[in-house]
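Weekly modeling sync, notes
Attendees: AB, CL, MP (scribe)

Item 1: holo prediction request
CL wants a bound-state model with protoporphyrin IX containing FE before deciding which constructs to order. AB pointed out that an apo prediction alone won't tell us much about the pocket. Agreed to run with the ligand included and paste results into these notes for async review.

Input as submitted:
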Amino acid sequence: MIHAHITTWIVALILFFVALSLNKSGKTKGAKIVQMILRLFYLLIIATGVGLLSQVSIIDWKYILKAVAGLWVIGTFEMILTRVKNDRRTSVFWIQFVVAFALALYLGFAVLPMSFLHP
Ligand code: HEM
């Protein structure tokens, strides 16, 4: 499950940047398709995240924060893509993306116990 979780968010990250560059180069149709696939990956990230949560016996605030950070990353993906499409400023959401992503990585890799290195 941890491998599936990592795979889904790495694929989502790649799709996000692909959708972004397609949007910026005016290929809106392609961007739309990639964004649809990206949205499917949101569901997979959440499903694997919830799957991991279900393996935890005592869910403390660190797990809640991890889940919130993960959902926050997904939220910033959507905000950035929508705002790029509408030619609006994205800097505030890029900052949020960096903060949320760093928090998810830190909590996932450094704080919480499950790891793909020693499952
Ligand atoms: C793009 C969003 C997300 C990113 C970048 C992310 C990142 C990570 C990382 C790096 C790990 C640790 C993997 C390891 O130690 O091998 C992890 C584990 C985990 N994630 Fe996520 N995640 C995201 C979304 C979510 C969501 C939405 C949820 C909950 C619904 C969630 C719940 C969990 C849980 C429960 C673990 C296991 C923690 C442990 O006990 O070590 N994640 N995630």
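Recorded for review: Residues 2-111 form one domain.
Action items: CL to compare against the apo run; MP to circulate these notes.
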